[in-house]
User: Which sequence fits this backbone?
């Protein structure tokens, strides 16, 4: 379903629109329809980008709150990671050829 609308455009804008329509073998309606669609898509993506930015900022704020808490665990992060992975403090569970540059 389509609706007919009447809009007012400055002469210069209408001339540019007509030029594009002629060059691309389109009607004025085609050009306006495409331009409106692109405008709306850009607005929607801008809203999504703002939401993503807010989520990142909220995550950073949460991480700062966690980092500011004292007395949870005085160990360094690497020590905790080694404990979780089951590594001993001075050794690694990697195979001997990992990182050696060799391979088959």
Assistant:
């Amino acid at each position: 379903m389509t609706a007919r609308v009447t809009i007012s455009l400055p002469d210069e804008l209408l001339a540019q629109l007509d030029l594009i329509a002629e060059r691309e073998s389109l009607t004025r309606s085609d050009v306006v329809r495409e331009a409106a669609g692109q405008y709306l898509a850009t607005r929607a993506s801008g809203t999504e980008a703002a939401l993503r930015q807010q989520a990142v900022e909220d995550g950073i704020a949460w991480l700062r709150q966690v980092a500011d808490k004292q007395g949870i665990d005085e160990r360094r992060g690497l020590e905790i990671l080694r404990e979780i992975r089951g590594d001993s403090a001075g050794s690694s569970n990697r195979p001997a050829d990992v990182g050696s540059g060799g391979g088959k």
About this structure: The chain has one domain: 11-85. The radius of gyration is 30 Å. Residues 11-85 form one domain.
